[in-house]
Amino acid sequence: MDVTVREETPFRYRIEREGAMRVPGVVFASRELLPQAVGDRALEQVVNVATLPGIVRASYAMPDVHWGYGFPIGGVAATDVDAGGVVSPGGVGFDISCGVRLLAANMERADLAPHLKALMDILGDTVPRGAGRGGLWKMSGRAQMEKLLVGGARYAVESGHGVPRDLERCEDHGALADADPNHVGQRAIERGLQQVGSLGSGNHFLEVQAVDRVYDASTAAAFGLRAGQVCVMIHCGSRGLGHQVCTDHARVMEQSLRAYGIKIPDRQLACAPVVSRSGRNYLGAMAAAANYGRANRQLLTQAARRAFATTTGVDVDLVYDVSHNMAKVETHALDGEVRRLCVHRKGATLALPAGHPSLSEELAEAGQPVLVPGTMGTASYVMVGTPDNGAFFSACHGAGRVWSRHRALREVQGEHLRSVLESRGIAVRPSSWRGLAEEAPAAYKDVDAVATATEGAGLARLVARLVPLGVVKG
Q: Residue 382: pLDDT above 80?
């Protein structure tokens, strides 16, 4: 790829290519992380995103950036809604509202130790995972599914799957307001009916963790975290329903590109003006799928609560739930003017600072938790949004792959990996040896380096470091 890469600061690189780029590309990374993005052609995708109609400021990539469908995973871009800006399903991805949820248990790591095996056995036996059907809440049909697609986690809580406080600690209070189930096709509905309350496969997981280190005691306390505390991190999304929504609407947009006079360098960036019928239909369907994802994680939260109650008798509270595959119409100040922007966060998470009007009362003073999971056997991080973010209040969402799944299978044996992890005191409950090998820690970037780069770039601040005690793999 014929591009110019220039270091602007130790954690910010400017990426440019002669031709049709409307704005520059900007990658937030360290010198240690940048070569990995070059190696898998993620920077080429950053450049391609910079050609989208209506894009403003820059095509951004987070420190965990790697190649994905359409946008790179870790890609962020905003388009001006009122100036022909587009929305692209490739800027959200197949797993709409895939997200991370962190729970905090009212117990210390040492107190859990004698109960850990029993806890992991219950979680391993009761949490549905893997491809295909299997969920904790079987929907009765389209009518009930539409209630869930509109209500999200709110509908789940109202139906007895949670407590009202959960919604105060969830992005958008548990549901996006603009969901339109009328634009979710029947095939998507059918795929989703039997999957509410399930992890799925791939890099999805439920992990029991402990707070290993606190960097900011006051912010950690506001989040409900303390050193030594037991936590649970859940990573999953909208399952087959979200995948089908992306597939259906990307196909429609690809067929309508000529009608809108849009030329793109990559068909995976198929898009339509936000204000067009195709754009509005996709945003309505995407919001519905996002609400499915929030409800999905709400059901898994209840499964974790039941497992803890059975084995330890302790309560588990929600710290926060935030998505990392979304496109949202937001208002941002650009050049002294407030403008409506469609902000795509593909494998990137919202990172709101203290005082932002979208935050609940509980979090207004501290800011929004930013959840950065690592991999099996490595740390995860809790960070917090900063006021001078510079990327539409966005941050990284995890470690980011460096190996393909095929290479991981060549390099790692699942049975051996489990033995290694368990020798380090990490209880592992895999759905398959193949799936375990594909998600080996060596297949990912160093999450410590990613967190350091995220803070160095001013995207978010470190609050706490978590270490794994047991993992249920999708």
A: yes
Tell whether the model's pLDDT for residue 322 goes beyond 80.
Answer: yes
Angle of CA points 223, 118, 312, to nearest 5°: 45
45: Cβ–Cβ under 8 A, 6 or more apart, which residues?
A: 67, 68, 70, 71, 72, 75, 266
Q: Residue 19 has what pLDDT?
A: 82
Is this prediction's pTM over 0.70?
yes
Amino acid at 395: A
CB 384 within 8 A of CB 215: no
Mean per-residue pLDDT over the chain, rounded = 96
- CB-CB contact of 445 with 206 (8 Å): no
Which pLDDT does position 64 carry in this prediction? 96
Distance CA 151, CA 179 (A): 9
What pLDDT is attached to residue 133? 76
Active-site positions read 397
Mind listing the pLDDT tens digit for each residue in 186-224? 999 999 999 999 999 999 999 999 999 999 999 999 999
Q: What percent of the chain has pLDDT over 70?
A: 100
pLDDT of residue 342: 98
Residues 6+ apart with CB under 8 A from 164: 157
pLDDT at 1 over 70: no
- Rounded to whole angstroms, the Cα distance separating 425 from 122 reads 18
